[in-house]
Amino acid sequence: MQLQHIPNLKHLDANNFFLLAGPCAIEGEDMALRIAEQVVKITDKLAIPYVFKGSFKKANRSRIDSFTGIGDEKALQILRKVGETFSIPTVTDIHENEDAAMAAEYVDILQIPAFLVRQTDLVVAAAETGKTVNLKKGQFMSPESMKHAVQKVKDSGNDKAMITDRGTMFGYQDMIVDFRGIPTMKEFGTTVLDVTHSLQQPNQSSGVTGGRPDMIETIARAGIVTGVDGLFMETHFDPANAKSDGANMLHLDQLEKLLSNLVAIRKVVNELGS
């Protein structure tokens, strides 16, 4: 696991998993700073390398009236402020080629959404910024096929790629995590498990995605045991009123206990591997 290329990433000598966490979407400055402050306190206490996550816009929505953002420039400026205020790295997802260079001016990691990870031009545009690229595994893709997405980043002159598993479609309205994919994808690079999106229940008749937040700890524990390098999860102090993905989000008040348990499990895994 090579993470030294991510600016301001702390606690790299702790031999812990790293964490990408924050709200699904940037809803405003106060909420972003509030969430980041709380997560920074917890991760510093537990010596977990931490990256703040927030989408500057949401392009993949079920309905035309779904929340998409507060404005690209405004949201990106908030992401920059979060990073500067707490001296932590930040990550956001991009959806169009021109988003890459724009977002790269504000964040440290560019994320390719799972729906778009086969879009060669988008992956190349992200890679050419020189930023770390987090490639979400498509819900329709095998773990083995992700090596081609990683190779696109490398062929663009960038060797800073991560792969994030966010579940695989199981029928029309459910997701599963095939943990056999973690060791497979570790052969290609740093691996992350997206815990909360793996528990989505998409394609609901209401047009609002459902989820199973009660299973967050179960999936996260399994990921740590399987040897994943990092975890991705969305958290909010008021998931019920979050403007995006509230149904599968972790309540911020539950984060410290969850991470404490996961750190304990990681310690055992490290001891068994030594």
CATH superfamily: Aldolase class I
Q: Total helix count?
A: 8
Helicity range: 25-40%
| Strand line-up of the largest beta sheet | 1-2-3-4-5-6-9-12
- For the secondary structure, the number of strands is 13
What is the CA-based Rg, rounded?
17 Å
State the secondary-structure class: alpha/beta
Q: What share of the residues does DSSP label as strand, in percent?
A: 15-25%
CATH architecture: Alpha-Beta Barrel
Shape: globular
Q: Give the class-level CATH name.
A: Alpha Beta
- The stretches of 5 or more residues where confidence is low (pLDDT under 50) are none
Q: In CATH terms, what is the fold-level topology?
A: TIM Barrel
Q: How does the major sheet shape up? A: 8 strands, parallel, barrel
Number of domains: 1
What is the overall pLDDT average?
93
End-to-end Cα distance, whole Å, is 16 Å
Subcellular location: Cytoplasm
InterPro entries: Aldolase_TIM, DAHP1/KDSA, KDO8P_synthase
Domain DAHP synthetase I/KDSA: 15-266
Family: Belongs to the KdsA family.
